[in-house]
Amino acid sequence: MAVTGPTGVVGGMTAARDVGDLVRHLEADAVGQLTAAAGNESLCTLSRGGEPRPAAKYHEGAAAALAQVRRAVDKQAPAQDPTVTVRAVRDRWTAHAGADTPAWRAYNDGGLDALDALLSSTPPRDGIRGNGEDGGEARPARDRTPEPGAPATRGPGNEPVTALRGGGGRWPRRRTVATAALTPVLLAALVTTGGGWMPTEAPLWTALVALTALISAATLATYLPLRGQGWRPDLGCSPCAAMSAGSVLAAAWLLGSAPLQPAMAVVALAAVAFGLVQRLTGAATTCST
Prior knowledge:
- The chain is mainly α and 289 residues long.
- It has two domains: 151 residues, no CATH class; 114 residues.
- It contains nine helices and two strands, in the order αααααββαααα.
- The chain has a two-stranded antiparallel ribbon with strand order 1-2.
- Helix 7 runs parallel beside helix 9.
- It starts with 15 loop residues before the first helix and ends with a helix.
């Protein structure tokens, strides 16, 4: 997607109001392209389907970046150069570049391309255009829009990226630590809720509950941000995130409803397994904002 400003408007972009108008124009265009790429389906609907949509994520990133600029420009002081605000937003997006899933990479590419195009179209008051790597002119937007059905986005070294939300085809160390720390806590809570610690009297039930605690801990660990995502929790879309976290609460309720019953422990285990699978494959690739 090559983002361009409306003809005849760019030449006078020196005031925040004019830049805001341009941003709104570009944002509306990005939202329109996002709607077309998503096939008029909501992002949460796509995430539940589990089908990767890199093109949709690219345009979603463009729309999100431009929305951030619009809000920032609306709040800035009238005398402030709006290009400084745009550069600040771009710096934040650059800090998130290098995410190791195809969806996040497409999302970041879309945002950076939109911001680069905006900087190229907005002459600042100090006469310095853009925010290139060397402080000079911003690089032109690249046509990196993934085509539907295209292979996975390639990462550094031209290597295919085939990551799950769980962390690039591997379990990141921070999530391993979180899983290890949460498992005994959740095991204690689930055992207490489900009838108490009785490994001799109810060995099968105890084993099922221990596995439920482990999977529950892994599910909660997926909310930790991956490298390149800053400190923002890795939620995905809110309904999907709530459903996966809710599966842990559902497991506790199920165990408490039939204490020491292996059949109910199997149901609880299935519930948390569903939540973990959804986190790894569903909301991961299409609903990351």
